[in-house]
């Protein structure tokens, strides 16, 4: 079948277009390869890793990240709230702590405890003021019992000042060491009675006599109540 000049021209033009298209594709690939070659390996990896494969996959990853962050935030908030409720329950009376109170019940009980504690504090303050007032009144009036107690306390100070050594272990315990001649000795039982009357509890006691006729007492005492004794 013979080809017309028009058909031959069309074929030649089509071949020319296909050839030009292939050259453009090759040139584009060469340009891309040249650009990537100019980049550092780190930049090439970053470009590969952070270039999304498709808009849909990127949106899906972002949704997952947001959901995980939200769940973590919710867990942290619940943990803090549970810690606060646990601290609140520890402040309740022991009888209430034994009960398995719900969170609203624990709050209600704590609110009721506040005025009760306030009344207890007021009562203790009033009791303290009454005791101090009574003590000052007894001192002013020279109460016989107070004077007798004070005179017994001065039984220790009748010894020479150099014969007594006081060592405080803390604000509640004291070690009292007494040294006297045997002819001047006071009975240990009487000393202990006098100290206990002054609000001191005997924890331990020891004594020994030296060759020079001196007697040594070592008393470990604990302060039980307000005392007016002053060690020399």
TrEMBL record:
GO terms for cellular component: RNA polymerase II transcription regulator complex. The keyword Transcription applies. It comes from Prunus yedoensis var. nudiflora. Residues 114-141 form a coiled coil. Keywords: Coiled coil, DNA-binding, Nucleus, Transcription, Transcription regulation. Residues 65-117 form the BHLH domain. It holds the Pfam family HLH. The lineage of its organism: Eukaryota, Viridiplantae, Streptophyta, Embryophyta, Tracheophyta. This is BHLH domain-containing protein. GO terms for molecular function: DNA-binding transcription factor activity, RNA polymerase II-specific; protein dimerization activity; RNA polymerase II transcription regulatory region sequence-specific DNA binding. PANTHER family: ACHAETE-SCUTE TRANSCRIPTION FACTOR-RELATED, BHLH DOMAIN-CONTAINING PROTEIN. GO terms for biological process: cellular response to iron ion starvation. The keyword Transcription regulation applies. It is found in: Nucleus.
